[in-house]
Amino acid sequence: MGALESGECRYVMLSYGHSALSSDGMLRMLGEFEVEDMVFGHFGAAAAYALAARRAMHVYRTGPGTWQHIAIGQRRWANLNPRAMMYDRPMSAEEYFNARWHVEPFRSPDNCLITDGGRACIITTAERARDLRHRPALVMGMGHDHPARSVYRTLDFTGGTGAKKAGEKALAMAGITLGDIDACEIYDCFTYTVELTLQDYGFFGPGEGEDWFRDGATEPGGRMPVNTSGGLLSEAYFMGLTPFTEAVMQLMGRCGERQLGPATRTKDPEIILCSDNGGIFQSHACYILRRP
């Protein structure tokens, strides 16, 4: 911030990522955010998710002790994925806790990657898929819920995702329960997003995340594999296509060294649940895919 004279700001430079913005550029950027953000100098997705995560540390007694298991588990999946940005970069608990702060309470490994690239999948009818060269993955159920509330307007400030209702709709359409799920591919813009999404789906109760994630539960050899490509945290950020296409590839048996089954000491997958999240926990999509 430059010098102030007679109550007027003469010069402003704001560091934003790797660039610097002039006062005009900063004002245009700030204009994209809500007034209550702007007046407190609070803006950006990381800060908004961090606000929810900080409140969750009080309400659910969660925090870095839980999130380390998510970050490290997904890194171990990425270490089996040659296309992952973090393929050759293993991470220990010590390295996680020594990582720099991004926006407290998030350290760098709690944040998703920034990625240039592309990803695609082809959706067609089950009848047409029978004639294709590769085994398809079938859509078994889906559900959406869009609370559309900003994190500042929820009753508890912890996020209030649409995962509960979306998951219930998807499971009902599929005619199954959570006990039938073999693996999860969860939208993971932040480690806390993974915890809250799985909690709202009902895999564990509020405040039970640390016990559920410990002992490698979600990593290779674990009882419930989560984000088997490394996810947005350790593979690449392609929005909801990162978890969705990974679920498709796993069910098609095309994941090589990270393939679920004997190679990773996990169950050969029949049914995979995947999610997408929009805004700051403001919309949610749940999809359940299965083998033919």
Walk me through the structure.
- The structure is a single chain.
- With 292 residues, the chain is an alpha+beta fold.
- The protein folds into two domains: 4-32, no CATH class; 45-290, 3-Layer(aba) Sandwich (Peroxisomal Thiolase, Chain A, domain 1).
- It contains eleven helices and ten strands.
- The chain has helices at residues 23-30, 35-38, 45-59, 64-78, 93-98, 126-129, 163-174, 191-201, 209-213, 231-234, 241-252; strands spanning 4-5, 8-9, 14-16, 19-21, 101-103, 106-107, 138-145, 183-185, 271-278, 283-290.
- Strands 7-10-9-8 form a four-stranded mixed beta sheet, with helices on both faces. A two-stranded antiparallel sheet has the order 1-2.
- The chain is globular and about 60 Å long.
What's this entry about, in short?
This protein has 292 residues and is of the alpha+beta class. It contains eleven helices and ten strands. It has two domains: 29 residues, no CATH class; 246 residues, Thiolase/Chalcone synthase (Peroxisomal Thiolase, Chain A, domain 1, 3-Layer(aba) Sandwich), CATH 3.40.47.
